[in-house]
Amino acid sequence: MDRAAVFDVDGTLVDTNHLHVVTWWEAFRQAGHEVPMHAVHRAVGLGSADLVAHLLGDDRDRDQDAALSAAHTALYGQYFDRLPALPGAGELLRRLHGDGWTVVLATSASGAELGALRRAIDADDAIAATASADDVREGKPAPEPVQHALELAGVPASRAVFVGDTVWDMRAGSKAGVRCLGVLCGGIPRADLEEAGAEAVYADPADLLARLAGSPLG
């Protein structure tokens, strides 16, 4: 049977989490909201609408949501031409593809942002499909992004492994019934990833690649 390796992108394959922190912080600041950067960091990995709701609460002025998201997109877009892939990201995807895994991305990014991320990874030859924010109604930590990735790969949850860097990733993968691996390169502590469902945790894609034989992707 086929098997699928599903990957989150921001903070997992591309070193963007702290860029998201700064640009979301600035978007909130411009709109008159004082949101601590550490709080923004913990929310990175949620889709835009869910991130705003998580940080500002249900009693916020919801009419501001679209403008906040647009401001973040504009600020973050300034980095599109120089987003840095994390060590070993492209090599890991190509190795898995060569080993017979169907590689699928599951990300809250879409459009030009997703294109910039894929250019940074530089492994399109290894990526079979992408489940983006445009393809689902609910983002992580709902299981729908991972479930859609499995549909694209044509495999059951029992034949898939999901790699991500946030608790939202681990919760989404766990709800979807797949084995979950965490990476520390997004800045979330090991204990938090394990508590949220990570079976094993690695420093970054290069570390996972170096220890691939002993991992669930081996």
From TrEMBL:
- What are its E.C. numbers? 3.-.-.-
Q: Which UniProt keywords apply?
A: Hydrolase
Record Gene3D superfamilies: HAD superfamily/HAD-like (3.40.50.1000), Putative phosphatase, domain 2 (1.10.150.240)
Domain of life the protein comes from: Bacteria
Does Iron count among this protein's keywords? no
- The yes or no answer to whether the keyword Cell cycle is present is no
Q: Name one GO molecular function term.
A: hydrolase activity
Which PANTHER family does this chain map to?
Answer: BLL8046 PROTEIN, PHOSPHOGLYCOLATE PHOSPHATASE
- Protein known as: HAD family hydrolase
This protein's species is Streptomyces olivaceoviridis
